[in-house]
Design brief:
Chain lengths: 419, 419
């Protein structure tokens, strides 16, 4: 008997018929003797409907009140799923975030989970209940409702799996696993049977969007076995999706490159003519961080005559706010020459654990892009990825070229040998 | 400066435009210097939509899960109203039932309020906030979400007014006050400027449906000044609706009859051939009460040969359950001769505080009905009302006849003298 946490996305919960389908899948696992904690998202479209109503009433809504409104989508889902499970004879009990409680910080609409009290859930599991916990939401220490941000239900699922020391956290979604890249852009994209956490982290953060990045971080931190599966297969299907592995299996023949991620949600900002002195990066990014704006790539070029240019990327939705902060607060304070920005960029990244030990990956990447006449605006590298920022209009072309050049449509040696 | 609790019904909250209208009305009172606690219902249609989804998944839904689902309607409303108030420059903060907390018993879908912790609300009012509290919902001592039943937001409003010792509780609805009877049935029906609590209690319980009965009881118990107003008048309107008075003003010329209530939501049940011995009423109604079925009229006829007939009315929705309990549990236990029921009845009631001191009201009522050939099936009287049960098909006719005979279209002497 295992303890399994299953998270179902909004499409899986999209209608009474789909919810009944989820219930039948849960019942199959229950019949096999597993203990089950289910984390449903809001019904597809519901969160957008609610946020639409909110924005209609207030174009600059109070995040506290937005969370009060948005969290109802998941609350409806847990009740409906409990009823659907009860209708087919299972014992089921629902919990909102505050009922568990799932305690978070107070960063409304992007809260972080600080702790989960799992006692009541464990009691219910022992008593033979399927326990249903609302995804995406929590409660801060002042009893305010918080939400974890888009895709936050993944994080709820993983955090629950960690707190309960579950054997596996299964993320059911409308894709059947993690692919080398988005099949809508590269039809030859191939599904991966396994992917390491680090690769997954990069793939999710860079735009593969199969899993929320914080969920993957959480899984890595707490060594949660994470699996991505499709909720659109038959209820009895034995398809096991993509397993996200935490430790590198040394016997496994690793593909050098696992996949190509891309992202056109970012914007690039450069602060020009910055005095090259200690503390300058903090002087620029401190006010940005204070405004709760996340920064992705950060680049500082070499200095000439005591002045340097400082570039970074932010989410496109926060571009205007970031520009305003820089213009009004940072530029006068540090006496920079100017601030320029570009919203029409895209980031394309090669991701692979094998990159650590294989030289020449980056140069092969740059060469392939140059051959297609694609200009590279920024470069950023880490142990297992190499990212470039290019003009948005070249994004699809760049992804296709790299997928072909790195032969991602072909399975690596060991996978090929599988039956 | 007064402290006013305002409750807005579902129609008043029915769309973003309507919510903005509520916000403007609230702002007007805030500008006049009042402290305000606002209790909105769910947007019109929302509760039915949610319960419809629930019943589609489970025709016999678990009340605990139903409450989890149904309570989201009001939660959305408090967030939206807070945003609408903030959009026009007011400070506003929302509370769900559990955040206040509003503590109830555990009778899901018909819970009763046991207590309200008003400390946080008072702090927010002192800090200049409009406080918005979700109607219809609470929390039991096991942290389960509960709901108060249809119309429960009225009760929330009155209970908050009592806890906060508010100067007035204003119930905004889609009617502009309490009428002598339903104007859709009697076009000459007249709006009352004032009505006593006791009359209101009878009018609400008997089907006028302007206010939830429990709300009126609560107001009477805690001496809350209650006013029914229309949310469809101009925001600046000085129309004061109908004031529900707690104490009889001895100087006021009382109308003998204030109004005529009616109700076709009930069903009549008679247990035939019951042994006439002590404890028999409890033997019949005990199992009904245990099943949480409310009973309205109760009649026991005089005994003949040691056997009597025992009649009572229940809500039509609970007729089948009540009949089943009587057939399977009660009848064998007390050796009754039979159980018969009729769903096609209606109750029509004359209500008026003046009835206490005026003889002959009942006989005038029975005479008027007899003149129209309407047979009376049951009669029940109290200090301020006389109710008859008649065949459902005669209901409208009975109401019209009584309205005319008792001259309810004409204002009583004192009201006529007003400017």
């Amino acid at each position: 008997m295992s303890l399994i946490v299953q998270k179902y996305g909004g499409t899986s919960m999209g209608s009474p018929e789909r919810i009944r389908e989820v219930a039948r899948r849960v019942a199959r696992f229950a019949k096999e003797g597993h203990q089950l904690v289910i984390v449903p998202s809001a019904m597809a479209g519901e969160t957008n409907r609610l946020l639409g109503l909110a924005r209609e009433l207030n174009p600059d809504p109070d995040p506290r009140e937005l969370d009060v409104i948005a969290s109802t989508g998941e609350q409806v889902s847990i009740g409906l799923l409990a009823l659907a499970l009860q209708a087919i004879g299972l014992k089921a009990k629902s919990y909102t975030g505050w009922q568990v409680p799932i305690v978070t910080d107070t960063a409304h609409s992007k809260a972080r989970i600080l702790g989960i009290e799992e006692r009541k859930i464990r009691q219910d599991l022992e008593a033979g209940h399927v326990v249903i916990v609302a995804g995406f939401q929590g409660i801060d220490d002042e009893n305010n409702i918080t939400t974890l941000g888009r895709g936050g239900s993944d994080t709820t699922g993983v955090a629950l799996a960690a707190a309960l020391k579950a054997d596996e956290c299964q993320i059911y979604t409308d894709v059947d696993g993690v692919y080398t890249t988005d099949p809508r852009i590269v039809p030859e994209a191939r599904r991966l049977d396994t992917v390491t956490f680090e690769e997954m982290l990069e793939l999710a953060s860079l735009g593969s969007k199969v899993l929320q990045i914080r969920a993957v971080e959480f899984a890595g931190k707490y060594k949660v076995k994470l699996r991505v599966l499709s909720s659109f297969t038959d209820v009895g299907s034995t398809d096991m999706g993509t397993l996200i592995t935490f430790e590198e299996d040394e016997n496994m023949e690793q593909a050098i490159i696992s996949g190509i991620a891309f992202n056109r949600d970012e914007a690039k900002i450069t602060v020009l003519g910055v005095p090259d002195r200690p503390g300058i990066a903090f002087a620029i990014l401190g006010p940005i961080a204070e405004a709760n704006i996340d920064v992705d790539i950060i680049l500082q070029n070499a200095s000439s005559e005591g002045l340097t240019d400082f570039s970074f990327t932010v989410h496109r939705n926060e571009f205007k706010r970031a520009m305003q902060i820089l213009e009004t607060k940072v530029k006068p304070a540090i006496e920079a020459k100017g601030v320029v920005g570009d919203e029409r960029i895209a980031k394309v990244s090669l991701v692979g654990i094998g990159m650590r030990t294989h030289a020449g990956i980056a140069s092969k990447m740059f060469g392939a892009l140059a051959n297609e006449g694609i200009n590279i605006q920024m470069i950023s590298t880490s142990e297992i990825k190499t990212s470039v920022v290019v003009d948005e209009k070249y994004m699809e072309l760049a992804v296709r070229v790299l997928h072909r050049v790195f032969e991602l449509d072909k399975a690596p040696a060991q996978e090929k040998m599988k039956p």
